[in-house]
């Protein structure tokens, strides 16, 4: 059920300063980041380009901007968010730590290991002993305040329609990232993978 990028017109060109930006922390198991690194390396190899700046933060920001664009077009995303939270929410909760408990407002279900994602496309570890924190590193991305505000208004609209979803912004972004990685692991057609690569490179060129 991954939202298609075809009509995405994100905000990569916008400049933000450290004083007016918002940091979002994406905390997931390390193997999800490793899979993202492998995918980004594939992009560089297949395009025969170095693509400096194409990294996990760029990828996560692109996924967020794609979601934000759907909000701006008033696409009904409630069922999609329910699906994300029920399918992958337990991964986010476990990564956040056992002492924090579940903070999201929907019931959790174990993440499926294969075939569960409704993905559609229309167009390094430190040496030494491992700790629990090492298993779930954190990636920080920067969002503009108006992007954050637009998502908050979107959730306010859902509450007004009596369809509340109590998701923190960090959790939402993590869910979008996890779904994308699951789609990669389940396998994409060559055509779909090439469309994604072409789209990512086009956004990188605009950045």
Quick recap of the structure?
With 207 residues, this protein is mainly alpha-helical.
Structure description:
This protein is mainly α. The chain contains 7 helices and 2 strands; from the N terminus they run βααααβααα. The radius of gyration is 17 Å and the shape is globular. The model is unreliable at 5-18, 98-116 and 122-133 (pLDDT under 50).
List the helices and strands and how they pair.
Elements: E1 22-27, H1 30-47, H2 56-72, H3 78-96, H4 132-135, E2 138-143, H5 145-160, H6 169-186, H7 190-206
Helix pairs in contact: 1-6, 2-6, 3-6
Which features characterize this protein?
single chain; 207 residues; mainly alpha; 2 strands
Low-pLDDT stretches are: 5-18, 98-116, 122-133
Write down how many β-strands occur, each being a DSSP E stretch of 2 or more residues.
Answer: 2
H and E string:
EHHHHEHHH
Q: Which structural class matches the secondary elements?
A: mainly alpha
- The percentage of residues in β strands lies in 5-15%
The strand line-up of the biggest sheet is: 1-2
Shape: globular
Number of helices: 7
| Helix coverage percent | 40-55%
The largest β sheet comes out as: 2 strands, antiparallel
Task: Estimate the mean pLDDT confidence.
Answer: 80
Q: What is the first-to-last residue Cα distance?
A: 27 Å
Rg (C-alpha, Å): 17 Å
């Amino acid at each position: 059920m991954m939202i298609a990028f075809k009509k995405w017109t994100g905000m990569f060109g916008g400049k933000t300063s450290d004083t007016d930006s918002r940091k979002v922390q994406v905390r997931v198991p390390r193997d999800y980041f490793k899979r993202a690194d492998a995918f980004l390396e594939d992009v560089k190899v297949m395009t025969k380009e170095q693509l400096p700046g194409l990294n996990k933060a760029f990828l996560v920001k692109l996924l967020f901007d794609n979601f934000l664009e759907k909000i701006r077009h008033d696409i009904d995303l409630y069922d999609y968010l329910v699906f994300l939270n029920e399918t992958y929410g337990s991964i986010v909760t476990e990564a956040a730590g056992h002492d924090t408990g579940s903070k999201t407002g929907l019931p959790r279900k174990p993440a499926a290991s294969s075939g569960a994602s409704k993905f559609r496309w229309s167009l390094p570890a430190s040496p030494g002993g491992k700790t629990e924190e090492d298993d779930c590193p954190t990636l920080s991305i920067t969002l503009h305040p108006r992007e954050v505000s637009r998502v908050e208004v979107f959730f306010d609209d859902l509450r007004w329609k009596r369809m509340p979803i109590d998701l923190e912004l960090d959790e939402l972004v993590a869910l979008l990232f996890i779904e994308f990685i699951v789609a990669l692991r389940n396998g994409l057609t060559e055509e779909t993978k090439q469309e994604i690569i072409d789209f990512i490179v086009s956004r990188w060129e605009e950045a």
